[in-house]
Amino acid sequence: MHLAEEKFNSxxxxxxxxxxxxxxxxxxxxxxxxxxxxxxxxxxxxxxxxEESETSDEDDE
Length: 61
Fold this sequence. Notes:
61 residues, mainly alpha, elongated, 84% helix
C-alpha cells in the first residue's frame, strides 16, 4: 500500500493533467468511431436462405 501511495504522490499535477487529456481524447475518438459503426450496421439487412427461396417462389407465381 505504501508503494502505491509513493507512486501517486510522485506524479505531478501537470503529468496527471496530461494523462487525463490523453484519456479524454481517446474517449472522443472511440465515441466517433462507435457512432460511425452504428450508422453503418443499422443499414445492414441480413436474410436467411429460406427467406430468399420463399421470396423467389413468390416472385415466380
